[in-house]
Amino acid sequence: MLDSKIVGGLVVDGTGAKPFRADIGVKDGRIVDVRETDGLPGGGIETDAAETIDAAGRHVLPGFVDVHTHYDGQVTWDALLEPSSSHGVTTVVSGNCGVGFAPVTPGREQWLIELMEGVEDIPGTALTEGIAWGWESFPGYLDRLAERELAVDFGVQVAHGPLRAYVMGDRGARNEPATPDDIAAMAELVRDAVEAGALGFSTSRTIAHRAIGGEPVPGTFAAEDELFGLGRAMARGGRSVFELAPTGAAGEDIVAPARELDWMRRLAKEIDRPVSYALLQVDAAPTLWRELLETSAAAFEAGSPLYPQVAARPFGMLIGFAGHHAFTHRPTFRALAHLSPAERGFELARPEIRKAILGEDDLPVNPTKQFDGMKDLVALSLDRLYALGDPPDYEPTRERTVAAIAEQRGVSGLEALYDLMLEQAAGTDHPATSMLMIPFFNYTDANHDAIREMLAHPACVSGLSDGGAHCGMICDASYPTFLLTHWARDRHRGERLALEYVVKKQTADTAALFGLGDRGVLAPGKRADLNVVDLDRLTLHTPRMAYDLPAGGRRLVQDASGYDVTMVAGLVTRRHGVDTGARPGRLIRGAR
């Protein structure tokens, strides 16, 4: 008898093959049968099952594998790992961008929290209250995680920042050069981490990544001898990935990326392990990404496994009264800070409050704190700050910029911004819930053509969702749903991508990058990680601010409707978007 079978659905199996109608049988957490039913009289799986899931009129897809998340702390207190698990994700990989929580010198936990808070915009108060510490070494961290029962599978990489600080102390934290002895000590720990099950090693080399006090992530300026020493140690540990945010990724240096690719190419070839890096379109050099992609593809053909990670939509920041905005330091707005979001929304809608805020100057800001100078950022960006609308449109025309709307309405840019942020999103009972988008990257031409070209390139891997991070700025953990809705179904300003292609891009391809050959495809013998999706009804809703992190910390979440069933290791974890309480997810240890 089967544990379950999914019958009558249109299967998109993750291989890139065209959809086909089939039944799927599941036993002991594995797929044991995929039987096509088209044209077969009475076909399908006839074996009885404890549960039969009717997928008629639905698509059946593999569970999504998100390889770029930051749940390193959240995993210790949150078994759901939302918002990723609410978007069909069944496997996440954390420890990206050189930040994490192991190894840790006893007494230095708060320093790691401040590093993560600054780089990834995760509230430090939430991390301080929420993380259940109890390890020093990276293998000890993995052992602690192995005790967790989760809604999704969890894999993690060992990160350069905590590693450097653990071995070198303050010298490492200050980005001083590593000595040969330092490198040897770090290399031993990297090898130990991979042997214990780390899926890879990560580092950050962009100066945009800074701790809460403004210091660059340890490892930002690491020399080649350090990078190669750690890469070689990683390869000695087992099957693993070298992941990085490269110099120039944030557009701070348009010459640097080519230099970065040179050492990445040489490292990948020498250690014969994948090197995966963030690839974005920057306004200062809008075609540079294509040159880097061509160089990466040529290097891959020559035996250097380089894998650019690309985003599914413009990469930037959401602006709204619930999060970051231009009026944070106005005295009248500050006076409303103690109110609940609903109460504050009604106050902001009062004409006298609006007039007061618009007429005031900012109070002093903290120059070292990220985004404290939001007024200046917004003032310089009104011509590329877009009203998203409801439902959100991530490919808006230039007529949807605040500057254009202000001109249409005959008001100042800040007046238009205030009024747009004040609008009420569907499903809310108070104003001041609308969000606007500043696309820092991937939107130079105000369309998605460059993004499509990146996604369509076989060398690129879908990534950069930053699930669990940038809590007050973005909610790109919704990328999997966006790939299905926008790219496979709804895009109207240019070519779409085939459904089977976008499914493969975030299942088989992402799983293969990290050597997770047991998932990502719906075939006998594979893990029963899958989604039953009502693709016609699948909807990505407007981002909203929730206050559900420990210590009341805030985070942007973006709901989706249309996922009928999400299954992990043969157990249904969500039905119609609601958590079932099943916790089949576990720590993934890499090939050692």
Descriptive account of the structure:
With 592 residues, the chain is an alpha/beta fold. The chain folds into 3 domains: 2-63 and 544-579, Urease, subunit C, domain 1 (Roll), CATH 2.30.40.10; 64-313 and 442-516, Metal-dependent hydrolases (TIM Barrel, Alpha-Beta Barrel); 320-439, no CATH class. Helix content is 30%, strand content 20%. The strands form 6 sheets. Strands 1, 2, 3, 4, 5, 18, 23, 24 and 25 form a 9-stranded mixed sheet that branches. The chain starts with a strand and ends in a 13-residue tail after the last strand.
How would you sum up the major sheet? 9 strands, mixed
Total individual domains: 3
Helix-and-strand structural type: alpha/beta
CATH fold annotation of the largest domain: TIM Barrel
Radius of gyration, in angstroms, nearest whole number: 24 Å
Task: State the total count of DSSP E strands.
Answer: 25
CATH class of the largest domain: Alpha Beta
Mean pLDDT: 94
Kindly report the name of the CATH homologous superfamily of the largest domain: Metal-dependent hydrolases
CATH architecture of the largest domain: Alpha-Beta Barrel
Terminal Cα span:
35 Å
Helix content: 25-40%
How many helical stretches? 19
Beta-strand content bin:
15-25%
Q: What is the general shape? A: globular
Unreliable runs: none
Index terms:
about 600 residues, six-stranded parallel beta sheet, single chain, Urease, subunit C, domain 1, TIM Barrel, alpha/beta, globular, 3 domains, 19 helices
Question: Could you provide a short overview of the structure?
Answer:
Pfam families: Amidohydro_3. By secondary structure, this protein is α/β, with parallel strands linked by helices.
